[in-house]
Design brief:
heterodimer; A: about 110 residues; mainly beta; seven-stranded mixed sheet; four-stranded antiparallel sheet; about 0% helix; globular; B: mainly beta; 11 strands; about 50% strand
């Protein structure tokens, strides 16, 4: 199984700042990586798929990059509604796996 | 717009079988896509349980494979999860979901249902 390791576990930033979240895979997942946002009491929401493609309705301030084993989710200028937990997920190999999450909190 | 809704008992006794159903509206399961189950223990991360294709092909997480069965009932536009021999470690919010933009990425989710394993 492919293990996804996210860092940092918690990121404390202020609205307007830039957020950079990382996801490292234990082996190459090619470009088959997605990012989800989850707010308390809600289901996850797909933000980015295949590394850098924004899902429908996702604002342009969210972007993804990387390939192989190292990936990054960038939020260019944080809005109050962006403070949440973010998960990466790979679909390169069964079983699909998720990272353990990065909590983005208000500083 | 597709909508998914989980249903089933919120409390299951240890060693028994957890059974959940996902009712789909706004889209016919038989038209395509993979339909999956994902769970999240309280305060923890997401774990993929398995998926079923509209044709009935299934894929399970090996860590649960011996205990999991996912099935589809196209006549009711539902798919179901059964997890046998449950323990407290199976306590979680269980989500049903459908993939979308690419196979394996979940674009539509149910609201989730908390299942507690306790005597």
């Amino acid at each position: 199984e492919i293990v996804l390791t996210q860092s940092p576990a918690t990121l404390s930033l202020s609205p307007g700042e830039r957020a950079t979240l990382s996801c490292r895979a234990s082996q190459s997942v090619s470009s088959y990586l997605a990012w989800y946002q989850q707010k308390p009491g809600q289901a996850p929401r797909l933000l980015i798929y295949d590394v850098s493609n924004r899902a429908t309705g996702i604002p342009a301030r969210f972007s993804g990059s990387g390939s192989g084993t190292d990936f990054t989710l960038t939020i260019s200028s944080l809005e109050p509604e962006d403070f949440a937990v973010y998960y990466c997920q790979q679909r390169s190999n069964w079983p699909y796996t998720f990272g353990q999450g990065t909590k983005l909190e208000i500083k | 717009q597709v909508q998914l809704q989980e249903s089933g008992p919120g409390l299951v006794k240890p060693s028994e079988t957890l059974s959940l159903t996902c009712t789909v509206s706004g889209y016919s399961i038989s038209s395509g896509y993979y339909w999956g189950w994902i769970r999240q223990p309280p305060g923890k991360g997401l774990e993929w349980i398995g998926s079923i294709y509209h044709s009935g092909s299934t894929y399970y997480n090996p860590s649960l494979k011996s205990r999991v069965t996912i099935s589809v009932d196209t006549s009711k536009n539902q798919f179901s999860l059964k997890l046998s021999s449950v323990t407290a470690a199976d306590t979680a919010v269980y989500y049903c979901a459908r993939d979308g933009v690419s196979s394996g990425y979940y674009t539509s989710w149910g609201q989730g249902t908390l299942v507690t394993v306790s005597s």
